[in-house]
Specification:
The complex is a heterotetramer, with 2 copies of chain A and 2 copies of chain B. By secondary structure, chain A is of the alpha/beta class. Chain A contains 12 helices and 14 strands. Chain A has a 7-stranded mixed sheet, sandwiched between helices. A 5-stranded mixed sheet of chain A has the order 9-11-10-13-14, sandwiched between helices. A two-stranded antiparallel ribbon of chain A has the order 1-8. By secondary structure, chain B is an alpha/beta fold. Chain B has one domain: Rossmann fold (3-Layer(aba) Sandwich). Classes of the chains: A alpha/beta, B alpha/beta. Bound molecules: thiamine diphosphate (2 copies) and magnesium ion (2 copies). Chains B, D: It holds the Pfam family E1_dh.
């Protein structure tokens, strides 16, 4: 494959990229440490920190007991104490055990203290479905946190972003949540010659197009890419906007692509009702009301706890065919 | 194993002992088949095997009465089978078939069965504690005499839900038997790296709860301990805590390279494995011989084959059913 | 005041109505019991269950330790065991400590078990701001739960609803969350002669109008009522739709009022981004795209942890003047 | 009080003892003023008074070093004052004024101060445990020698966060001093209705943590215990747990009708109140007399009057500032 890779540019998996980002952070800043369940001896539940324990030692690659609320809260306290903790929560479903610390403490302290205590904490967690892990391991609860002022919510979809967003998040004085989709870890991508911190303020157009805008984030980006190729064969030129950050949302980039195509599909693996796709749709409605000829379409997860059986899980999650159908619908204009 | 094997105590009925062995063997072979079927891609998702810990489930289930509830974890195939869920239904569940005990919606980590009050298959570590406490509360308020059997690993004891739930159970004197399957590892985290106090019964006792340590590799010991616990809980004396010291012979799940422990450590425990040890004792007592063993193996093998056939032949629930069971539609 | 009350109809506070509903439930069904912090000896943090301990005893009016996750989960287990528990969580912020049990267990068990184990649990909690309780006691996190399939989310705004919805929720085989706004407890309202269970399937038009639709729920209903009176003086005839249930949402009633007025303001005390108001706006956009001449306006809480200082709290929460301004904006048509 | 009053031990310096008394008196009078100002509508929201528990805060704060952090609860006025936050800033905070120690955004339950590492003012019961543990972790990793002082009520010990945090602190041997203010009630819930084990130090010890019970009404006892705890934690021996047995003389908050305890019970404790007892001992020792007392009262009164004047004169933060401090805008 590497023959296809331009000189200087490296092809690497999302896992390796996440790993490089972590490695760099640990090397560059003594204050940075990684804390979570099985990040050390086990090698990380998705093998992202494999070998780090040997390299950085148990103080900085800190295996924790099963105590989500305490080790997330300990991350808050350590951040207040001058460290730059990276807390890993294995799966977003488990983060519900730490929701109190994340929402009532991390998100509130700066404001509640009149600007005195900011919490420079980074929390990484795996999210999403597709591995038949069932209803307690497969959800996309990003909007639970994207709803909360005081938090920043990042959803790296590319190798460059998963590598670079960590550095940016660590440089950010605010609590930042990074969601890594479980289906991405083994996916390969191209990393620029000199990768580094990336901005987290702007969404990115991943594919230029004029016929329809596919607005998405995280794992769904690649389904949109595939959908765009199918659409192209049918003569529909799709533009794809990767939100990258769910809080804050980059309204400017959203409205720019809306103004360009006037046909919009939002693709979101969260449950449809009360999801971030609703917020995006609402903002488009509010800010680009007169630009649209047909209503925005949303392609989301079915409103069911994600089931184990393959055919049911597939039916529950957004699929390429669903995106293609939604795109054709808005393009054909029968909104 | 060179050291002399002690025969069964006189007060133990040979047939009963043989039954216990057969149950453990059934679970062992079933789990081995699951591993095989996982590699074959027939079973997906996360798969957690009970191999090495059979004596705990087998011993405990002897004391579980029909009105009792069992609240288990994601490592619950053995408990499900021993509780009386048919092997067909369990295997079909792992195949994701509609004939599965959870209609194929739960998979390996979410086995459920209404008839036997098998309340899951919970993949949130610690998530079952409050549920078991609540079931026991309902039993007490309704005087059903039912006991809630809460099964969990030692790693779960670090979760806040453990603390809150044990306190509630002790404070309200509820009929819960807390069964800790201490296999010394939580994924890759050894007990002494997860608990400041590794003498686990002391934790239970800090809630004023009766607790005992049990050799989880000896099915006679686990069976007897469960009987004591059941008698205690059923007679209104409140909750009881059992620490079963056991060991996981296989990887945590199929994604585990086992970097956190040595092959030797695992092998040493295997030599003291519950089936191996008990088989030897049965043989020393003359209750089991090679022919009998062969018969048992054959019976289990054919039941497993039948279960695989059943699962293979099972139906994939039509996608049109996806939205069913999110809510019960009829008002009760 | 009672002179103004029509015969047979009683004027009663929201607190008394909630209390009557609870009392009736406890009297009518042996399986019903109330469990939570200080529901007994203390009399309930908002005095709703005052005196119940003496009447029904400590078994059925069950004071719990400070253990939100365990007593909510115990409610789940008790429901599975044949009881009909009513669990009280003092304030929605504290419910984050039980989010795991509510979302990973209560909402998932029926589906995950292939239809075998439903959870007939009712959880009541206080919500909202306005009493200067600060950032850990004043939030409106309804959408956190309204986003989750398997849960039902009710927001009684009237004395009839707070009294009757409890009975309906108890008769429901699914987990039902009831949010009671803290500012409503002392508010008086009229109760019909023979109050009882109320439907939870339909939103209600609380005020007929033709000029603009104010879509709201919970504590904000009364701010909308006040706004409607002010608008009337300015010749704007507002219709007010009380959603009553946030999950499921009654699309039919929403679209009916939208079709009627073609001018919409959604009033929601939750933070704007990722709120239920976004979902409502998105649904209107999707289902009534061609009915609207101007975009829907949202009046929500400012995106800040609710501060203590009165003037800041007032500024952070939706106020009558904000609703009036939004209504005039959509009516004047400069969307 | 008829029974004979024992004078101060010889090894206690009279001036120091007088200082401790003056500190307690200052807190007491401040709280009384807060109650008054609440009734006057000047202070809003929830207000939790420390009256009756002054000896705990006063004793503890003597051992809090400048680099240490204090993580408190919503009943933290006393701790804030004793830690060195100016009375002006605390009173102004309760008035919701910009000059308040949290700019008026926190109120009574959320006092914060960067200079003294006073990390709140937390109104989520149990919410401070993990924060204190994390602060101590940072201190240990950076060898700052700082100790995290975690102050909480006995009711908080039922929360899962207590369990998870004590285990972490003990497992990682972190410099945290856990200060339980056991006033025997959590709102209206008496200790024996919230904990199956009411001997609280046993809970701490179940994490292999050193723990002691302290008479929370005797400021000399609390001061000495805090010194032992600080020495232990600062010298790298890990966390320490102190149960201070005390009593809340006033209602839980201003919304509490106190149906759960009798006036007599409260009165009996008041007779043993920390100020009353200590004043008597100081008098018996000749360190305090009516004139000195009058002077102290006058000093406190004028400081409080000044604080009220300061708060009254404070500015209401302009509404245009509402959205500030949700995020730190500049990258660090
Ligand atoms: C709340 C939560 N945190 C983390 C996990 C991931 N996880 C699954 S099993 C496991 C280890 C549990 O160990 P133990 O309780 O000892 O049970 P065992 O697997 O050894 O039987 C972990 C960390 C989870 N499922 N739930
Ligand atoms: C998580 C949470 N649950 C409930 C409450 C409501 N509440 C505030 S204080 C309190 C009692 C706490 O008692 P204790 O810990 O003993 O402290 P004390 O008030 O006696 O000082 C309760 C139940 C809360 N603030 N946070
Ligand atoms: Mg284990
Ligand atoms: Mg207390």
């Amino acid at each position: 494959m590497s023959t296809r890779v331009p000189a200087g540019i490296r092809e690497i998996t999302y896992r390796e990229a996440a790993r490089e980002g972590l490695h760099e952070a640990l090397e560059n800043d003594e204050r940075v440490f990684l804390m979570g369940e099985d990040v050390g001896r086990y090698g990380g539940s998705y093998a992202v920190s494999l070998g780090f324990l040997e390299e950085f030692g148990p103080e900085r690659i800190r295996d924790t007991p099963l105590s989500e609320s305490a080790f997330v809260g300990a991350g808050i306290g350590a951040a207040l104490g001058g460290m730059r903790p990276i807390v890993e929560i294995m799966t977003v479903n488990f983060s519900l055990l730490a929701a109190d610390q994340i929402i009532n403490t991390a998100a509130s302290y700066l404001h509640m203290s009149g600007g005195q205590f900011n919490v420079p904490l980074v929390i990484r967690m795996a999210t999403g479905g597709g591995l038949q892990l069932g209803a307690q391991h497969s959800h996309s609860l990003e909007n639970l946190y994207a709803h909360v002022p005081g938090l920043k919510v990042l959803t790296p979809a590319t190798v460059e972003d998963v590598r670079g967003m960590l550095a940016t998040a660590l440089a950010d004085p605010n609590p930042v949540l990074i969601f890594e989709h479980i289906l991405l870890y083994n996916r390969k991508g191209l990393l620029p010659e000199t990768p580094g911190a990336v901005d987290i303020d702007r969404a990115r157009v991943r594919r230029e197009g004029t016929g329809v805008s596919l607005i998405t984030y995280g794992g769904s980006l690649w389904k949109c890419m595939e959908a765009a190729e199918r659409l192209e064969q049918e003569g529909i030129d799709a533009e794809i906007l990767d939100l990258r950050s769910l809080r804050p949302l980059d309204d400017e980039s959203i409205m720019a692509t809306v103004a360009k195509t006037r046909r919009v599909v939002v693709v979101d693996e969260g449950w449809r009702s009360g999801s971030i796709s609703a917020e995006i749709t609402a903002r488009i409605h509010e800010q680009a009301f007169y630009e649209l000829d047909v209503p925005v379409e949303r392609v989301c997860a079915a409103e069911v706890p994600i089931p184990y059986a393959k055919q049911l899980e597939d039916a529950a999650l957004p699929q390429v065919a669903d995106i293609v159908a939604a795109a054709k619908k808005v393009v054909s204009g029968n909104g | 194993m060179s050291e002399a094997v002690e025969p069964l105590p006189d007060d133990v009925d040979g047939e009963y002992a043989l039954k216990l062995f057969a149950e453990m063997l059934r679970v062992r072979r079933f789990e081995e088949k699951c591993a095989e079927m996982y590699s074959a891609g027939k079973i997906r998702g996360f798969l957690h095997l009970y191999i090495g810990e059979e004596a705990v489930g087998s011993g405990v289930m002897q004391s579980v009465a029909s009105e009792d509830a069992v609240v288990a974890t994601y490592r619950e195939h053995g408990h499900a089978l021993l509780r009386g869920i048919s092997m067909n239904a369990v295997m079909a569940e792992m195949y994701g078939k509609q004939e599965g005990c959870s209609r194929g919606r739960g998979g390996s980590m979410h086995l459920f069965d209404k008839a036997t009050h098998f309340i899951g298959g919970n993949a949130i570590v610690g998530g079952g504690f409050p549920v078991a406490v609540g079931y026991a509360l309902a039993a007490k308020m309704q005087n059903t005499g039912a006991v809630a059997w809460c099964i969990f690993g030692e790693g779960a004891m670090a979760e806040g839900e453990f603390h809150e739930s044990l306190n509630l159970a002790a404070l309200w004197q509820l009929p819960v038997v807390f069964c800790c399957e201490n296999n010394y590892y939580a994924m890759g985290t050894a007990l002494d790296r997860s608990e400041s106090e590794t003498h686990l019964v002391d934790k239970a006792r800090s809630y004023k709860m009766d607790a005992e340590v049990v050799d989880g590799m000896d099915v006679l010991a686990t069976e007897a301990a469960a009987r004591r616990a059941a008698a205690h809980a059923r007679s209104g004396n409140g909750p009881y805590f059992l620490e079963f010291q056991t060991y996981r012979f296989r990887a945590h799940s199929m994604f585990d390279a086992e970097r956190y422990r040595s092959k030797e450590e695992v092998h040493e425990h295997e030599l003291q494995g519950p089936l191996r040890i008990f088989a030897a004792r049965l043989q020393a007592t003359g209750v089991l011989d090679d022919d009998k063993r062969a018969v048992l193996e054959a019976e289990v093998a054919s039941e497993i084959d039948a279960a695989v056939t059943f699962a293979e032949a099972g139906t994939l629930e039509p996608v049109s059913e996806l939205r069913r069971f999110v809510y019960v539609e009829d008002r009760s």
